[in-house]
Amino acid sequence: MTTNSTTSTTSQLSARGARFVVAGAPLDNDNRGVEALGSSVVAHLASAESVDTVSVLGDGWGVRADGSWPGHARVDRLGVRNSRRWHRRESWTRIRFDQALGGLGNPVATRLATADAVLDLSGGDSFTDLYGARRLTTVCAPKEAALRAGRPLVLLPQTFGPFTTEEGRRRAEYLVRSSALAYARDAWSYEQLRSLAGPSADPSRLRQGVDVAFALRARTPDGSIVDELAGVDGEVLVGVNVSGLLREESAVERFGLAGPYLPTMVSMVRALIGAGAVVFLVSHVHGAGPTENDATAIEAVEEALSPRERTRVRRLSPHLRAAELKWCISHFDWFTGSRMHATIAALGSTVPAFGYAYSDKARGVFGTCGVADEVVDARAVAGQEAVELALASFAARDATREVLRRRVPEVVTQSRNQLEEVLTAALSWRTQPPGAVT
User: Fold this and answer.
1) Would the pTM of this model clear 0.85, i.e. be above it?
2) Which residues form the Polysaccharide pyruvyl transferase domain (predicted)?
3) What is the mean pLDDT of residues 94-119?
4) In a designed cystine with 323, which of 160, 219, 386, 395 is the match (CB 3.0 to 4.6 A)?
5) What are phi and psi of 318, to 5 degrees?
6) Residues 325 and 284: beta-carbon distance below 8 Å
């Protein structure tokens, strides 16, 4: 009787398509890097024949159907909030309460309970306590909810750490060790992942992958943007991403920068103009408030330029979506930026890129493409020295492009293959549930 019941349950599971919850990369986010992560994953799942439903956790309220994805899978956006207003079903406090009582019709609790797996991205680099305890709580909330629901948790390729507090590290260790699969997006992060998992971890559950944003397919923007790029045909076109996160003078102390960021970027733009380039200023985070908004930083750079210099400068619309920005960036001859996913859009399009970074994560990701030396640490180098290194990268762009042409196709293929690995694993867990990483 038990055998027949088990066979019947297995048959029912096989008859329906897979159901996934995607967390940590809201599609309606104004950070185009986070959007690129979510879009890459959702596009792959929505196009898979074996997938029935994709529920994407993010900003907003309630449940909203999203019919913009090709493929037969249903894609819904579900609002979730780290809010004390527990009477709202979107509040993680309320979700936890409803989970404890069987769901109570809460749509998020229901999707979690019926998911074949919960796929979590942590915004790519937010699984850390560097941004404070509240931010870590928000990042951990969907992971912890998946475990409460008894569903397999998959940590998709991301950066792990650093963790500066004992409490933050213990929390991360628990979540990593409770995961069914965990992917790091570069070699450095993989070592952090192994440390969090501990010496008794099953190595087959800990994997070194690549950033899923490499899988993002570019999309042509509207005609006015295309015309703007075509209007400077024959010129050397470079893209410069200026990060609003580093704009304020307080960023020097907060991130340990070697010197003020904006003067360095102004000098860099001037030097590129002097080298004969037309410079497109690229915003990759929009609507995050004046202290993080890239458009605000770009305005400050423009204001510092002379009227003559401004004739060689253009600004891409901050309202372009991630796939549209990638299309634009793919038409540049060289690119530099401090937002890592802006540089990933370049690298993934085999456009030579120079990272002016404020953390260790960028060098690891550039390394997956064989160009780790194209990253300069803003915590060690600023001002004229940083500008000279950028100009050297610009001058060597043809050689860098050849390296990228050899290495990037393999990286893009890997970014898609790892999603197939997750899909295959999730289907197998229907009949043989996974244990934890340890």
Assistant:
1) yes
2) 87-359
3) 96
4) 219
5) -70, -10
6) yes
